[in-house]
Amino acid sequence: MRRAVVIGATGQIGRPVVDALARDGWAVTAASRGGGRDAGWDEGVRTARLDRADGDALAALVGDGCELLVDVVAYDAAHARQLSSLADRIGSAVVISSVSVYEDGAGRGFDTQGEPDGFPVYPVPVPETQPTVAPGEATYSTGKAALERELLGGDGTLPVTVLRPGAVHGPYSPLPRELYFVKRNLDGRKRRVLAYRGRSRFHPSSTRNIAELVRLAAARPGSRVLNACDPQAPTAAGIGAAVDAVMGAETETVYLDGPPEGSVGRTPWSVPHPLVCDMSAAERELGYRPVVSYARSLPETVEWLAETVRGRDWRVAFPLLARAYPDLFDYAAEDAWHAA
What we know:
Oligomer: single chain
Largest sheet: 7 strands, parallel
Radius of gyration: 20 Å
């Protein structure tokens, strides 16, 4: 059997990647920091503990070789060099990057969003040929750009497919944007406020669609960069309506014409200009067809979120989300705004 090693196998993206490859006939070694013994995979999936920063441990895991290595958690140029050092033992690789590497024509990107007029204005849709930020070590975006540059700038000994997902969604997410709507419904909030008239679009990426792209790239090794997004990019208002439909909730949405007013109207999708990615290259090069739409993927996400926050402080359940959006559920501010 063809052997595949998946690094970061128990995370949000890693789990469906392991499942997709196993169904496709790969002998999968699922590597993670915790070892993945509780992930519920079939007997054919081998689990292993791995500290991603330990190059010697990674080399030992690859052993005499594998036909495919999937790296879900690679972050920077050092990680890229680790993979390149094993080129003679790896048939091909698929590495997860991010759409956050994109820069617009005025030098704006994800790292400038907090500056006045700092949100990037991208073409719609964004092709893979769009310029990227300069590689570096300072931020997530520059680190991912450095990862890509190092992987794709070599001698081609290791064929690497780099995938750039957008707003990743699905169970086991450390940053579940959908919680914005799910928790409000669970808390009985009948009204919500959306900035930019709810028209913000930040292209989502189902973990199941990302896994399908990994599966297809594994079957067609090559050196390439591909966007990894869903078939549609719904608006923030559309996402709220889709969550309501899954939960059987009836809500009223109030719209702000412009940006959020403090925390009021701010959501994890609240962007002044759309980020919508072109998926034609994946269709052309890999024959990609999405396996699920955003709406059809939601029920399992909603169920997992509801179960995860039941009886728990959401900030304890999702500390990364709480750091990124500390005032995500500032109900007092919303009530005061409605009363004004």
